[in-house]
Amino acid sequence: MEATDKISKIMTDNLIKLNVNDSLSKAESLFKKNKIRHIPVVKNDKIIGMLSYTDLMRISFADATDDDGQEIETTVYEMFTLEQVMTKNVEVVTEHTTIKEAAEIFAKKEFHALPVIKYDKIVGIVTTTDIIKYLLEQY
Predict the structure, then answer these.
(1) What domains sit in the chain, N to C, each tagged with a CATH number?
(2) Dihedral (Cα; 61, 67, 70, 76), 10-degree rounding
(3) Which CDD domains does the protein's record reference (predicted)?
(4) DSSP codes joined into one string, 18-43
(5) pTM to 2 decimals?
(6) Measured between alpha carbons, how far is 100 from 4 in angstroms, rounded to an integer?
(7) What is the DSSP string of 102-132?
(8) pLDDT tens-digit series, residues 102-113
């Protein structure tokens, strides 16, 4: 393990993003289809927020099913915009941030994903799971 290993070594760069004007139904679909827990919200490729699956769960019963096991369509998503539900003022890191520095941010904060930016444009995302996998590979 190198103390100088950069976040670009472990970040996900094949990004799934939401545009600020996308619907919460689209967000839920992306979460489930891709089995992910965090999606950056962008406006012209500039990060303006982060939506977590937990954010959606706070406002809905998205996983609710009826007696036949069919998903119940939620109408609560029509009551809110993505911008109202997402986390704003997101902390970001650059591709040159070290893995150790990112781990320190996660240890101090109460979130589990950091957008990675280059020249104000999002180029990746790193999660606590990425850090744990990296640490496990070292042993």
Answers:
(1) 7-137 (3.10.580.10)
(2) -30
(3) CBS_pair_AcuB_like
(4) EETTS-HHHHHHHHHHHT-SEEEEEE
(5) 0.85
(6) 8
(7) HHHHHHHSS-SEEEEEETTEEEEEEEHHHHH
(8) 999 999 998 899
- Mean pLDDT, the chain, as a whole number? 88
* Residue-wise pLDDT tens digits, 75-87: 678 889 999 999 9
Radius of gyration of the chain (CA): 16
Q: What whole-number distance in Å separates Cα of residue 56 and Cα of residue 92?
A: 22
Amino acid at 131: I
Contact of 82 with 41, CB cutoff 8 Å: yes
Structure token pair of residue 139: 């042993």
CA distance 36 to 138: 24
Q: Which residues contact 44 (CB under 8 A, 6 or more apart)?
A: none
DSSP state of 98: B
